[in-house]
Amino acid sequence: MTSLAGATQDEVRRANLSTVLRLLHQDGPQTRSHITAVTGLNRSTVGDLVSALAVLGLVRERSGDIRGVGRPSLVVEPVPGSAVVLALDLRVERTVAALVGLGGQVFARAERQHHDGDQSTLIAEVTQVSHEVLAEIPPGASWVGTGVGVPGVVRTRDGLVRFAPNLGWTDVPLGDLLRASVGGGSGDVLIRNDADLGVLAEHMRGSARDSSTVLYLGGDVGVGGGLFVDGRPLVGAGGYGGEVGHMRVRPDGHTCRCGARGCWETEIGLAGLLRAAGREHVRDISVTDLVTAAREGDAAARAAFESVGDWLGIGLVNLVNLLNPQSIVLGGHLSAIYAMAPDRVASQLQTALPAARELVEVCSSHLGGDATLVGAAEVAFTTVLDDPVGALNSSVAS
Amino acid sequence: MTSLAGATQDEVRRANLSTVLRLLHQDGPQTRSHITAVTGLNRSTVGDLVSALAVLGLVRERSGDIRGVGRPSLVVEPVPGSAVVLALDLRVERTVAALVGLGGQVFARAERQHHDGDQSTLIAEVTQVSHEVLAEIPPGASWVGTGVGVPGVVRTRDGLVRFAPNLGWTDVPLGDLLRASVGGGSGDVLIRNDADLGVLAEHMRGSARDSSTVLYLGGDVGVGGGLFVDGRPLVGAGGYGGEVGHMRVRPDGHTCRCGARGCWETEIGLAGLLRAAGREHVRDISVTDLVTAAREGDAAARAAFESVGDWLGIGLVNLVNLLNPQSIVLGGHLSAIYAMAPDRVASQLQTALPAARELVEVCSSHLGGDATLVGAAEVAFTTVLDDPVGALNSSVAS
């Protein structure tokens, strides 16, 4: 309601341009009449909006496939090389970078392992891999923003990483550091929690496109949660919501790196899984190694997946009862735990309240390891999608 | 964004009428210039909107207090006797009914204890207390809706109570039953979870008016949660979100009435508190009795408040980490636990992640036992506040 109060013609037009561009960016090429049907706008308004976006170079029209004998209809499509973003997935052991065009086309992609070193070494590595993909910006393209996913609690306003235990970071001004060393083109450098980007990606382009309430749970070393509730990201008072790994599900249990006892992460995080398998002291063992061992009949590995499967299910019950989601998407090693012990997870889920339990579907991420990277690109596109004219003008001016 | 797409003049006017009426309903009498400042609408638009609402009888203008020598300014105020709602707080042991006018004035209030009996006995008691307050509808007033709070999981679409363990209900069509026996005037009978109404009330008229993320935790017999996140109620896929009492915080603990083990409610619900005090077999003991005993030095009662205070804090940590609220408002017996063991609650809260912990304030409900009743009135006013012209016209037509 409030958003309509005092809306001017200009605001309405900006919102309509945004609606049309977002639709093309997300759903790809489509006819004007399809745009008319989906947006509820009338035909002449859609024609005018498409023309305005074409003048900016963001979309173009081409003849559609000729089916039957009728006149071929025009198809509107986003122009990938018109506006591009830099997407970064900064993980504990490596950083993945991609240069992504409007509509989702990937122009370049690179990875770089992190070496042991301090924070400035890591920032130098992130900077280097960024410049590697930025060298591939197509001629004539506007670089409109940079999005970065990081495994930690982030103050989104300026990109201060408040707490990233697996990186050993407290209050690191990652936004400012990357603004200085990499930049955001004509836009900003936006730092976000990795799982928050994961849920955005799963909702926009992944397993949960039709769900208005989606939980994405990513397991890398720790366990992060991105919550998309009632059609939008759950943010909270300071933007710190979604720390599912730190639900205390076993208050007399193990001490977590956050200092509390019995956080969910102590049971279902990588360390918890290895401990359950009696392999907490084995060096360089991966989840894949443990899956292989279990498949080959190793009793301790199998038992570990089953007992950790129970704990995965117990925490999911809490989230189902609290948030009543349609989809829970499991990424990283949580996806492996679910694959190895689906019955244990399902059996714990039976203890959720029936009304909420009946509506939820649990699945593994379709985007696999790329959910955070895809989400980083999407958040970087926000400015141009929200206000195409304003963003492109500031890009020309800069 | 989407809400603006294709907005017509009529829609904008309806939204503006709604904005102005909601402001007067919630904040009380104020000058036109104050309305202009708060809404961002221009003066002539505000004048026109106020006149339209005055023609409907919903607001009126009167001379304000004369301060100094200037011309007294006109004050716009809601007319309490123009539109009224029936509000019901259906609890385990009794029902409270109120007849509430626009702006929040209470015209009548009545309570009725429930006797042992089946569901139809209880519905008859609720019907009787409703008719008692409906007899007090002022002449000329339109009865525009009925709101009902109930301690259970509710399908809001039609008011089916899916699960209310403390009433012994499963799939009771409370909405249909009360539509037949009581009605909603020109509006509907809206059934809601009691804590969902509690958080609405605390956000609109209580302890958390300025918070965009508020958790209301009500303790009657069980423990219910109403979550208001990022400026609006958390709903979830089926409207069943917010069942905080069924977070499993001690999976090897006591069996809950929902069937699961170790739900938060088993530790901090009334039964858990009495068990901790060694009084689970004492008949008709109340929380007030236990508070009195503890204040008079009863060691078991004191220890019970302290250990249950720990459990209260542990569950709050989960909610703080997940939802990053500004305010947590405790109602019912949870408020008593907090009052008796504030240090234990605070000490557990220290284990929440610092970024989220720093922002949260825990307090007791200012509305006391009336939070659900106030929320029930507010939800019943929704139709007239969303579309004053449409709602009043349908009231005249019916």
What does this structure look like?
In chain A, helix 2 (32-39) crosses helix 3, helix 6 packs across helix 14 and helix 10 (299-323) runs parallel beside helix 12 (342-349). Chain A has three domains: 2-78, Arc Repressor Mutant, subunit A, CATH 1.10.10; 83-197 and 374-397, Nucleotidyltransferase, domain 5, CATH 3.30.420.40; 207-366, ATPase, nucleotide binding domain (Nucleotidyltransferase, domain 5). In chain A, the strands form four sheets. The first copy, chain A, has a five-stranded mixed β-sheet, sandwiched between helices. In chain A, strands 14-13-12-15-16 form a five-stranded mixed β-sheet. Chain A has 398 residues and is an alpha/beta fold. Chain A is 42% helix and 21% strand. Chain A is globular, with a radius of gyration of 23 Å. The first copy, chain A, is built from 15 helices and 16 strands. The interface between A and B is large, with 71 and 71 residues.
